[in-house]
Amino acid sequence: MTGTTNRSRSNPLLTLQLFVLLIQVSIPLLYLRPSSSWSSIGVEIGQMPPQPQQLRNRPHPPPADESEVAGYFNGVPVTYVAASSSSPPLHSTAHCIGETFAEKSWVHRSCEYRNLCFDLEEMDFVLFRSPDEADLSEALKAHDMARGGLLTVSSALGTTVSLGGINDKWTWKEGAGGEDAGAPALEWAPRILDKELNEAYYMLPESAVLLPFHSMAAINVGHLIWDDFLPMYTLLSTFNLIDDRHHAMPLRYVLKNRDRALWATCNLRDKTLAECKGFFKKFLPLMGVEPSTMRSTEDSVLNTTTAGGGLRSRYVCGAKAAAGIGMLTDHGLKPGHGWDKRDYDLSHNAGRGPVLNEFRNWMVRNLGLDPTETVRRGPPYRIIFAVQSSKDRDRRVDFSPQIKALEQAFGSTVTIESINFADKSVLEQVRLAMESSVIVGVCGGGAVTNMFMSKGSGMVLYYSDRPSGKQHDFPARLDFDYFNNAGYARVHWMPISSMQKQTDIDVFVKLIKNEIETISHH
Predict the structure, then answer these.
(1) CA of residue 243 relative to chain centroid, distance
(2) Helix (H), strand (E) at residue 460
(3) Quick check: 61 and 245 in contact, CB under 8 A?
(4) Are 349 and 481 within 8 A, CB to CB?
(5) What is the pTM of this model?
(6) How does pLDDT run across 86-137, given as a tens digit for each residue?
(7) What is the CATH number of the domain that holds 443?
């Protein structure tokens, strides 16, 4: 039959189609082969890659051969790389993002560095310029468009960034030294050496990510978490340095271009420095950082394991580093966190909900907890009143009427606790927040624990709605821009001035009733 004869005959078009199909199938299979890093730990084809471990205070891994450890830089193991004619010299590279082509562009920029080194003699960071980068730099200097700012290169080593978050109370007056230099003192780039590193040096583990930063106001836990930790997390995430193969190594930068530290910063006084150190020690585990490994540019130290303890090089280098967190805080260039009327003209965190949620989850994982836990749906619903959370007189409130009203309205349906979170360890604070259905408190730094509440939970934040001085003459819904854009928990705002009135207490009870109803169907 004709049909049978046709099927047995060679068909060039069919052969070509089959060949194309074979290629289409084979190419994806090539990409399904396990990578060397996966196969080395026993991951077979079809298995999921290893997930980030839930570790607490993850240490920087030492070299595979312990005998290779040549010392410890701020407690982190380093190896010694001897000068060798057979090894290529070390040079640095940069990748900078966030350019706005404006005068204050440096506030917006962030840079990722390769081979950023710390100079133990100058106590500062340095980059080593390669011949190719030197040629590019000279060409840019000679180019009219580059001098006029019309030609920009994202890999230029001298690109400046903001070392830390900006406090609007710092003056923008230009100058260097004394009281003249305010916010502009944060404009920074590592010192550039116009040569490759041909001499010996110490090297941090491949997993270490150096993070030079200037702390905006770590004397307050809210500023510490949202103006230091949040931007550092965002920086790491931006450059894909946030997985379990990397370990953050923050190093607090003490400004060298001022005679006096900026207002409200760590080095302003001995008292503020002690407060900063205390808060860092307590809360650095949230970043997965062992507190003893974080020092400043003034007290960083390399302890060698060599006989006699002498240094064989002035340089400690990190293969990976990043800096530039000016616009990555929870407020950016807004005047403040809710004290100023202008704060309410725009939102810095609109659409940033996924980042805020992942930031929360990252810190929870760093404590060894499961960030995917959701709020309990059934009774008894756990309601926590955060007491004594503020030192400010206008935010020292008595929740007795609210507690009594809830006890009468709900009985055994709820459990009510009054807790001073400041008395608890970080792990205890996070667990309490995760296990609560509703937290009631006042806004401000003391409310930072609320950010760890589980998905589907709710909070009631009381705020000072009356002027408390020349600087604070507007209802202060502090940190509203953060909480109102963190999509995993509901937030409600109530004024302090009328919280003792029965009408307000009635509204509060109905609000909690609605919260419980919402949680039960979440």
Answers:
(1) 13
(2) strand 457-463
(3) no
(4) yes
(5) 0.85
(6) 789 999 999 999 999 999 999 999 999 999 999 999 999 999 999 999 999 8
(7) 3.40.50
